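Question thread 4412

I'm putting together a teaching handout and wanted feedback from people who do this every day. The idea is simple: show students a protein as raw sequence, then show them the structure tokens that encode its fold, then repeat with a second protein so they can compare. Below is the first pair exactly as I plan to print it.
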Amino acid sequence: MPILTVVIPCYNESKNIPLLLLRFQEILESRKDKESIKNDIELLLVNNGSSDSTEKILSELIPDYYFARSINLKFNKGYGNGIIEGLKSAKSEYLGWTHADLQTDMNDIFSSMEYIRQNNFSEKIFIKGVRKNRSFFDNIFSIGMSFFESLLFGLPIYEVNAQPNIFHYSLIDKFDDMPKDFSIDLYLYICALRRRVKIIRFNVDFPQRIYGSSKWNTGIKAKLKFILRTLVFSLRLKKRTFEK
């Protein structure tokens, strides 16, 4: 059984999936510790109700990669829902998720595994990237969101939507409490801060997409809708308690 399962929700990512799997394999094969870590990490690709050939591509390619498996969701009920269904299917002690669009490097997963080892497989860690090489406007958007969330929760919050998100399974009490949209990143971040686990942040590159386009970041109007949804969810989340 792998130590870490990383869920990768895939919505119309048929062109990126072959490159993603190949990239992970290339990194693994190039590592000096390949033999000792090759069974430690599992990629769980979730076809999140795609309308393109994602399901077909996954069924054809997954058998060729021993470190990967996939599940198929007939309908897209949100980015977060795809992650939740993947997490429910995972059996590893450590869980996480990242994007399928190749804007997040597969090497970040190996870096996360190294942090788990460096912290002696502690249950009290939360590992999350900090994006670099972003556009000026996107940086301003993230700074504004971080400022608002920090004031609202009274916690040091920044780069909420950076990937990957890696954590011990005990951090989540109930999957049903998790939001089914992009607010899932904020939810987990707040859970980790409220539980006072060790927060480990590390720099990750965030290049342009090779194929496809963002499913939500399509312009100013889309960003405003995202901000509104985030504000509403944040106010609701403020009323909850995550203390055991």
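The second pair follows. I'd like the answer to focus on this one:
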Amino acid sequence: TINNSLYGSSSSNSLISQTDSVKNTSSTKNSSASLDEIYGVVDKYSSKYGVDRNLILAIIKQESGFDKDATSHAGARGLMQLMDMNSEYYGLTDPYDIEQNVEAGVEHIKGYLDKYNGDLEMALMAYNGGPGTMEKRGVKDASYLYRMPTETRNYVPAVLAHYESYKNS
């Protein structure tokens, strides 16, 4: 479940930022994190929370490009680009830790999937823009994506395209 107190009316409550606004703060891309390690962690938490592994991979691809050390201009960190308040809520001690970051991110998207009755587009809008922004902008279903900020309008179809690609590979 998600803690609705985390999601006031401010869009700063979102977990993420688009990949193009993520910068690598490490000296070497994907420093010591192998794709096999990331995939193993994704599989573990996909199973634990009942979230399609392909969706998790799609989110990671869009959020951080699989760079565990990615940091956005807004301060979102790690593979799934967690903001500090979300890291704290989920008990992360190191948002760059693959296990901690992926578990929290998967638990968070699962909360949105539950909140929006499995509506993937609504869950992705909330993950990117925040449910407070959705509420303020009168987003009642996925057809209202046009009311969201440009970043979210670009984010949702990008993740869905990655998702389809992973499902078909």
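Top answer:
Good format. For the second protein you could add a caption like this: The first helix runs from residue 35 to 49. Residues 27 and 64 are 15 Å apart (CA to CA).
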